[in-house]
């Protein structure tokens, strides 16, 4: 599916004031920026605008301030410094977002230069999508660019507001994310193998449902597998289970069968007598989980089965770890699947916060075709929902 909205390529930015909503929501501790993935992900758009002589005004949220004004730990000042360091561009920062100081700083931005505004969430009107905020922000620019994929699913002031007053287009990150994550439902190269894990069926129902419409094979792992086991009449001991979702899980298995989608569930499991870092894994087959044990990871036979299915794939979408990968004793299944995806000759797309953390933990990020920068936003796309931020942009001609 082609991206249907205008992008920065479609407009003239020479000498213009370009207001860009980025996602600079990075981890910060004691004023030091940790992971810089999100800053780097915004660089293609920022560099393009600078190269095309725009006056670039950047805005973002950071963390969850209470919305009553400045809070040092959520200031974007260290992020602006990090952006200058990573990009080599002329970046300035103003400790204001909606006031006179911000307006003055915006007026002073020269072509080819970059200004970072203070955290949009220091004012609670941002989250309420207050029209006053939208108007103030819109007054800073001649055009609005949305590149904050990670917040594009939230209809908040700085995400959707300026689009009501200014020409509004997508940045490169937003375009690539939406293209990639909707592309798996349009024309995936087949076989398309989807892998879904994580703790709960209930949180992934929309994802599973939509993937069954498109995938050839659906691999299920993680805590959610046990609710599917219950639907098959197996006993699961103390494993994570959602009794209220057993019927729904059974319906999903039926839907897959009707559509000719192959579902793979674990054939064996690493179980433990308690949930903890120090728990010792024992391998049991799926039809003989003892009453006093809980499933913490897929087992070695399942790893082989899943790796074999992934090996033949041309497209892989993966969301959700296969086990409690935070504990080294139960990270094996997730690592095996991750390596199989990395080794396969396929387009590999990874979405979801914990799955991305797992890929990074195993140092396999550079072996993947695309790692989504947005947890919630990527899940909404994979559920088949439209993102309010994207909806608000101008349609491509
Ligand atoms: P993502 O963030 O990639 O979408 P989720 O948030 O859905 O993934 O799930 C990740 C969580 O699922 C991890 O914290 C992991 O420990 C947990 N999990 C995986 N397998 C199990 C299991 N068998 N029992 C309990 N929790 C599990
Ligand atoms: Mg998660």
UniProtKB/TrEMBL annotation:
Residues that hold substrate according to the record: 23-25, 38, 61-64, 121, 154
Alphabetically ordered keywords of this record: ATP-binding, Cytoplasm, Glycolysis, Kinase, Nucleotide-binding, Transferase
Chain residues that bind ATP: 204, 295, 326, 352-355
UniProt GO cellular component terms: cytosol
Residues reported to bind (2R)-3-phosphoglycerate: 38, 121, 154
InterPro entries in alphabetical order: Phosphoglycerate_kinase (IPR001576), Phosphoglycerate_kinase_CS (IPR015911), Phosphoglycerate_kinase_N (IPR015824), Phosphoglycerate_kinase_sf (IPR036043)
Subcellular location: Cytoplasm
Alphabetical GO biological process terms: gluconeogenesis; glycolytic process
Protein name: Phosphoglycerate kinase
Taxonomic source organism: Collinsella tanakaei YIT 12063
